[in-house]
Amino acid sequence: MADEEPKIIIDEDWKEQVRREREQASKEPQESAEETGAEEEAEASPFAALVQSLATQALFALGLIAPQDAQQVTVDLPQAQWLIDMLMALREKTKGNLTPEEEGQLTETVAELQRAYMVRAQQAQEAALKNSGVNPQDLGTTQ
Questions:
Q1: Which of 68, 78, 97, 125 is the most exposed place for a label (fewest CB within 10 A)?
Q2: CA–CA separation, 75 and 27 (whole Å)
């Protein structure tokens, strides 16, 4: 038994099967975007799923979403910044290769995350000042 080589079965007709499936799919009537829903269409796109995945991770890092059983929210600004930078790099590297919908989704996602990051960064700075005994509202006044 140890001398026997394992049998390798090669499926030679897989290309023909794929061709038949493509032909059949092209003959079926296409559903309109209104019938399928824009949300389902976005979920079907691997690019949209990638953008959504990175955005969700950034929202977790910003403490804007948390697991249901979480007792407290953790904010990780460096991680959030890194994820936003990754989305910006993705936007730069895919420039000219995206559909208008994909480009719009990516641009809007980056803009929303940047706004949320700025708010969290300001909150963190104010908290650090208060912990050091400085009132952030007193910084702009002269005495």
A1: 68
A2: 51
Please tell me the distance from the alpha carbon of residue 100 to that of residue 44, in angstroms, as a whole number: 16
pLDDT tens for 40-98 read: 554 558 999 999 999 999 999 999 998 888 888 889 999 999 999 999 999 999 999 99
**Amino acid making up residue 92:** E
Q: CA–CA separation, 55 vs 60, rounded Å?
A: 9
What pTM value is reported for the model?
0.63
Residue 38 CA to residue 1 CA, distance in Å, equals 57
**Are the CB atoms for 120 and 65 separated by under 8 Å?**
no
- The answer to whether 58 and 113 have CB atoms below 8 angstroms apart is yes
Compute the distance between CA of residue 143 and CA of residue 112 in angstroms, rounded to an integer: 38
Angle between helices 46-61 and 100-131 (to 10 degrees): 10
Cβ-based neighbour number of residue 87 at 10 Å: 20
Tokens at 66, concatenated:
């948390």
Residue 119 C-beta-side C-alpha neighbours within 13 Å: 10
